[in-house]
Each structure stands twice: as C-alpha cells, then as structure tokens.
C-alpha cells in the first residue's frame, strides 16, 4: 500500500491494518447474510409446499374431479397468516380453474422437480409461489399457492441487523485495540523523538541505546554516530583554537617583553606618547586574543563535551578578589565583596570566566575612584552572582545589544573588545541562567546572573551526575529580588 | 637567586632571560623538558619558570616528573593556552603559580618574588618582605633591622598574610588560623589585631590593605 510520504507511522499502520480488515468484515457480513436468508427462505418455502400438499390431499380424498369445494373453515385456515396474504389456485390439466383465485398465474416452472417455486408479481405485489402437481381422477391437477413476501422481508431485515450490528461493534473494538496497540508499540519511538526534540543544539550526548527496540536500533546507532562525529568536530575545533591562541600569544609575549626591556634600557622615551600607544595596542591585542579563545570555548559545540559539577559561587567571588585587586587599585577603584554561600551545578572555569568578564567590564567602564561590588547570594530558589558599579550605566535602549559580539556602546569610554558580555551570555545560556540588568543607585549598573535553584552542594552534585539538558531558555523573566524595580532580563536571543 | 627558564620560543626566552637578569636573578635557559631535567638534576635552582607548550614532553610532564622525584623547587607555569582549565591542570600536577602569556614583567617579577619568599620561608624558616623579616624558627621579627614586638595572634596574622601575598586572605580564613589559640576568635577581633599590626608596621612602610567584604592583603613588593 502506498501512503503519502509525510504520513506518520501510526496512520500508516492503522490504515494498513484497518482497510483489509474492514473488507474482510464486509465479505463476512455478505456471506453470513446469504446463508441465513437461504435457511429462512427454505423454511418459508416449505410451509408454502405444505399448504399445497394439504390441498392435494383434500383433492385426492374427494370424489368428484370436475369441481371441488374447500370448506369455509379449511379455506380460512389455508389463507390465515399473521402478516402475509395467501392465494391459491387449483387447475385441471386443461387449465380450467377448479378452486381458488382465478387471476393467480400458474407460471410454468422449468425445474420440473417438485416442488417448483417462482418469484412472481400478482396484484402489484411481489410474491413467492409454489406449484404442486398431483394425479387425481384421471388427470394432472396443478395446485399453486402464493403468498406476499412481508414475513420474508421482515426476516431479511432481522437477519441483516443481527449480522451487521455485532460486526460493526467488532470493527470498532478492533479499531480501538489496534489504535492503542500501535500507540503502545510505537511508544519507544515517541520517547526517542521526545529525547531528540527536547535537546538543545549543545547537547551532543549519545541517545539511550539499550532500552530501544531492536527495529529502531540501527537508526539510533546512526544518530549516535552522528553525535559522535559532531562531538569530535567540536573537539577538533577546540584544539585548533587552543593551538591558534598559543601561536598568537607567544609572539605577543615576546613583543611585550622586548618593549618593556627596551624601555628599561632607555631605547624608548619612557613618557612618549608613541610608547603609550604601542603599549595600549599590545594590551588590547592581548585582551582580544584571550577573549576570542574564551568565547570560542564557551560556544555550545565546544562546551557540550564538558561535565557539570557543583560550583560554590562564593568561592569564585572570593578568588576573583586576588585576580582583580591590582587592576582596581591601578584605577583607584574600591573593589569590594558581599559574599554569601550559594551553589550551582555548572562548569567551574566557565562560571569563573563569566564572573571575571563582569568584573573586568565594571572596572573598565567605571571612572576612577568609583566603587565596584561583587556579590554572591541566594534569592529564594535562585543562586545569584552579581556585579554592581557606580559607573555611567547602560541606557535602556542599549541593554539588548550589549550582548552582541563586538558591539560597543557608541561613544563609550572603556577600552574593551566587545566580547566580554557575549561570553557572559553564552555561559549563562549554557547554564540556563538568566541575566538581569538594572540601574544601581540612581546611576551605575548591576548585572546579575540568576541560576535556577540548586539548594546545597549535595543537590548540585546529584544534578551534576544526571546532567540536565540545558533545555529551553529558562529565562528568569521576573527577577524576584527585593527592591530592584523593573529589571531588564535577557538570556540572549 | 638562581632561576631556570624552560621555554622553547627564542624570542620570549631571550626577553625573559634579559629582563630577569636585570631584576637581579641569575638565569639559565633550557629549551626542552629533557634539557631542563639535566639542569635541575645537576644544579640547584631557587625557582623554575616552565612553559607548558614545549616540544616533545610538555611542561606539565616535566613538573609531574619533578614532583615525582620529590623536588620542592617552586614552579611558575607560563602558558599560551590561557584558559582557567589549564591553570587548574597546571596547579594539579604541582605547579605553585600560573601566568598566561603575554604577561607584564613587573607582575611576573612580583610573582617570582612571592614564590621564592614562600619557599624560602619553608626552607630557611625566614619570611622576608621589604624591610620586614620574620624568623619563624626563633619567632623573632625585625623591621629595618630593629626588633619588632608581636603578640602570638599578630604574628599568626602577619605570617598568614605574608605567605599568601599578593593573594587576598579572608577574615574567615584568619579566624580559623587563630582558632588554635583562641576558640572565641571573631572577625571583629581580627580587625582589632590587624589595626594594631598596621600601627606597628607603619615605620617600615608596609601596608596591610583591606579588601572590602573579604579580608586583607599585603601588596606585592614593587621592583
């Protein structure tokens, strides 16, 4: 059977089973009906013949041949029938009517073997007629008995309903059984479909194989091979990036060292504007190279192959103090911390990278003598990592765009490369974390990373074991932080 | 002080050698892990500066081998790979600190100095920072040659800060450290001890910096 190519398996199976099944049922009904009808007709025919035989017996017992009379009682009995009219005619060999209804035709019946039957029309009604021939009083007497077909029709209707209703019931029952049977049988397929559908592009784990029915194992195996290839490809890409970064960084290190040496040895004028530009260019190049590497490594394909584990946000925040203190001191910025224990399940280096980028951004864009505060805390079910500054803030219109790669707010003063927040967004998405941007204290900016409820380290460890597919973007659309006003939330596009 | 630089890139190696020589160190150069092994086996160095991306055996393998045979030499890893993952794997195999290329020389020198100070404190029971010397075996402190009178708690706090410098030490960490003498030590009490320490260190121009919300840090010595 050919079905449209886009039909699903369930439709195909249902039709492939039900169409022939319905055909078999119809054939069954037709054959059963014919058999039952034949049986009923034979019985009714027999009673017609019996009537004819009664008349024949009566003729043979009478003494005259020319004319015989049926008693009124006998005729009434003969003609009595609850639903049908009964007619009869007795004729001699020359066709003269001896008794009964003159108009009843005695149709010549071909079969010859008695009793003879025929379907006739008489008085505008369809009738069944039986003929019986007897020899009496020296001639062949033909007895015809006919009746209307009311009870035969009624019997047909009865038989038909008695046949069709149960068969119809059976068809419906079979349909239901087959339908649910197919559903059940196809459940493993549906499960695999759900598994694949629920996946994010970064989830490249193999599909469950052992609990899959034998018939679809080849398909699942091929899918898993594909996932393997994708994983390998992303690993290869990551290796390439690591190599590229290495190749770029080493000459940069050489350049940096030799310029510093040159300054030391008096080859460059220490305060010259040109030297400042050169050092600035090297610093920006250095920053860009390391940000590019971080961005590439945080990208879904590369990140998919790394396991989640419990990460204490408060430890990350505390460690970042040593990393960023000198940068803050150099700019006269008061870098402070407000740390409460909070755990999430995540990739440690990525979360550190995200926090580092937030702090780095705050330090870059906050003017000298500013204040930057790093917080870790729990807010209801959420674990929260946030960085607040008293810098120029971000206009509401720019709040979505700042997460784009290489986007920089027009006229902004900082010397960032435009990748920092894109990295943060990638990492937040991978951890199903929401990003909230708010104005802090009249001006300035507070960026919060809001991670879905991971209570304690223990829970986080369990979660890490059965790593949740970092499913659909579970943005924290309403940020339930007290007194924060209307936050702008983003988990990226 | 004698340093071994293990770096295969000539440009970087030469720059490092010249810079560190200028900073007052005696510097030897190895261009492979194998050569570094021979150097380290034959002579005594105060610190090894190891690039991870070496030809043949890489820097991590070299460190693993060093630690495997019980060497306690401070190792500062230099890497161009630069992700924090690598940092961790570097520290896991036994490196003491880690810097990503490219680096600023003053920061590199500060890190080298801190590492050497720490290993010196262990090996020679002497902790030095600028004019300050803590003799840990005799529990004697001098500031610019003059004896410095410190209480047990002040001593413990200063020792912890100097050992960690230029890293930040949390107040909670200090409370735990002092718990040996004083079960009821609180963060507030730590603050009192630190302010007394600051007064005592004032003449030596040694600053204990407060890191808001975490604790304290003694800044690295500037070269």
Commentary on this structure:
The complex is a heterodimer of chains A (493) and B (223). With 493 residues, chain A is of the alpha+beta class. Helices cover 49% and strands 17% of the residues of chain A. Chain A is built from 11 helices and 13 strands. Chain A has helices at 9-61, 72-79, 150-185, 187-197, 217-264, 273-298, 300-303, 313-330, 348-365, 420-430, 457-465; strands at 86-91, 97-100, 116-122, 125-136, 139-148, 309-312, 334-339, 343-346, 371-379, 382-389, 434-439, 445-451, 488-490. Chain B is α/β, with parallel strands linked by helices. Chain B has a 5-stranded parallel beta sheet, with helices on both faces. In chain B, strands 6-7-8-9 form a 4-stranded antiparallel beta sheet. The two termini of chain B are 15 Å apart. Chain A binds chain B through residues 242, 245-258, 260-261, 264, 282, 286, 290, 293-294, 297, 318, 321-322, 325-326, 329, 334-339, 348-349, 352-353, 373-374, and chain B through 9, 11-12, 15-16, 18-19, 22, 53, 78, 80-85, 87-88, 100-105, 107, 166-168, 170, 209, 211-214, 217, 219.
Radius of gyration of chain B: 19 Å
User: Percent of residues of chain A in beta strands?
Assistant: 15-25%
Beta content of chain B comes to: 15-25%
Instruction: Please give the number of β-strands of chain B.
Output: 12
In DSSP terms, counting alpha (H) and pi (I) runs of 4 or more, how many helices of chain A?
Answer: 11
**Strand arrangement, largest sheet of chain B?**
2-1-3-4-5
Broad shape of chain A: rod-shaped
Structural class by helix and strand composition of chain A: alpha+beta
Largest sheet of chain B: 5 strands, parallel
Number of helices in the DSSP assignment of chain B:
8
